[in-house]
Give the backbone structure.
Amino acid sequence: MFGKAQKIDHGSLMDRVYRHQRHFYDATRKYYLLGRDQMIASLRVPPGGSVLEIGCGTGRNLIKTMNQFPSAELYGIDISREMLATAQKAAERAGIANRLHLAYADAARFDPEALFGRQDFDRIFISYAVSMIPQWQAVMREAVAHLAPGGELHVVDFGDQNGLPRWFRATLYQWLEWFHVTPRNDLFTAAEAIAADAGAKADARVLYRGFACISVIRRS
């Protein structure tokens, strides 16, 4: 369990980090937040299915999801009000504001019934956010708890860089630290444990010689 003070502190930190970055975030991140579109393509959202993004940021991924799965109902939560404001404007520009439901919430403990009037989702995804969330394993467990029967949790983030030169990994990790980002090199191990506890199955996929990775937990 994480207290109210921790939730507010982390939300305030994210607001400070992204207050100005949010205006050019998508233009810069496309060069190194690799694997996002591959993850979205692999969602296989059923017709009329529901999709929740945890840490929805600017709304970029949800708009991409809508383009690929036009009948989906989309939802997003974030702990940064600054990012949520940007996501709302992006949805309005894309003409999907009536299809995209956004809410301020702490992903480690949230009530989708209170936020959106529904109990679960067919697909939940987390894109380059577990590396920024201190209690990331609790967030993944919470996400699995809100999957509908047959639902899937997809997580894409930085990999362990094992297939890349050591100097590249050292440089990348130093740079990421400036933005409060910590790659979770035990993501696959944690996903296996979380899946086992939930009676689900976990799959792992390594991209770009370890630069990025995708973890999927599927409920039976």
Notes: Residues 4-21 form the longest helix (18 residues). The first strand starts at residue 50 and ends at 54.
